[in-house]
Specification:
The chain is α/β, with parallel strands linked by helices and about 270 residues long. It has one domain: NAD(P)-binding Rossmann-like Domain (Rossmann fold), CATH 3.40.50. It is built from eight helices and seven strands, in the order E-H-E-H-E-H-E-H-E-H-E-H-H-H-E. It has helices at about 20-30, 40-50, 65-80, 100-130, 170-190, 210-215, 220-230, 240-250, and strands spanning about 10-15, 35-40, 55-60, 85, 150-155, 195-205, 260-265. It has a seven-stranded parallel sheet, with helices on both faces.
């Protein structure tokens, strides 16, 4: 079914590579226009160029409230508003509770959890305004679009937010926080009768740059095969495995799905 996101505008954070790039590409292929944001400005611009006229890029430090306001205003000025927010930007980090410094703990939570809070905090109002058709001052393609539409927030957590490991203290904590924050945002939007759903995706190992630290100094194919042996389906995930799940959750097909968590984990959570 083509055009599942036709007429919608999305903002994908951490969109220069990995899961963010895959989701942005799938969204465009399904008819959306996308703002690709990333702290790696050059990478974001390269990805937007690959996607053509339906995409734009913005440098974005997701831990900075002012930059959140800027990127949401940029989406309004570029495409008339925003219907979809994907809080994808994040980092991986290993370390037990004893090994992890307070500085590293705070860094992981700032990027992996606080950024999601900021995205939801500022994104809810921006999405609600677009869905109401508040296009005053909007310029560019799509200005004023979206009246009566439905919006969605998708937070990329991890299976590590559900299943703990001894050597992932900060990462487990941050991703578990994303999981529960998602449910709080979903209930808030429902209570306020905003036309916005909020859900989370929980991937297992996916072949993206976030695994580079895990496979550092080893043969990448061999390392991925070793990781894959931990997964019931026998392999690590591919970015499109997650991107297709994202397409569903931000499409109108999922308009009665909110506060939910989608495990894209090859069956590991069933063990």
């Amino acid at each position: 079914m083509a055009g599942r996101l036709a007429g919608k505008v999305a903002l994908v954070t951490g969109g220069a590579q990995g899961l963010g790039a895959a989701m942005a590409a799938r969204f465009v292929s399904e008819g959306a226009r996308v703002v690709v944001s990333d702290i790696n400005a050059d990478g974001a611009r390269r990805q937007a160029r690959r996607l053509g006229e339906a995409a734009a890029a913005r440098e974005h430090d997701v831990t900075d409230p002012d930059q959140w306001r800027d990127v949401l205003d940029y989406a309004r000025r570029s495409f008339g508003g925003i219907h979809i927010l994907v809080n994808n930007a994040g980092i991986g980090a290993g370390g037990t509770v004893e090994d992890t410094s307070l500085e590293e703990w705070r860094r992981v939570h700032a990027i992996d959890l606080d950024s999601v809070f900021l995205g939801c905090k500022y994104g809810v109002a921006a999405i609600a305004a677009t869905c109401r058709g508040d296009g005053a001052g909007a310029t560019g393609a799509g200005a004023g679009t979206g009246g009566g539409a439905r919006g969605s927030i998708l937070n990329i957590s991890s299976i590590a937010g559900v299943i703990a490991a001894a050597n992932l203290a900060a990462y487990n904590s941050a991703k578990a926080g994303v999981r529960h924050l998602t449910k709080s945002v979903a209930l808030h939007c429902a209570k306020e009768r905003y036309p916005i759903t909020c859900n989370s995706i929980h991937p297992v190992f996916v072949d993206t740059p976030i695994l580079d630290d895990i496979v550092d100094g080893t043969d990448r194919a061999a390392a991925l095969a070793k990781l894959g042996r931990q997964v019931p389906l026998g392999r690590v995930g591919q970015p499109d495995d997650v991107a297709w799940g994202a397409v569903y959750l931000v499409s109108d097909e999922a308009q009665f799905v909110t506060g939910a968590e989608l495990y894209i984990d090859g069956g590991i959570s069933a063990m």
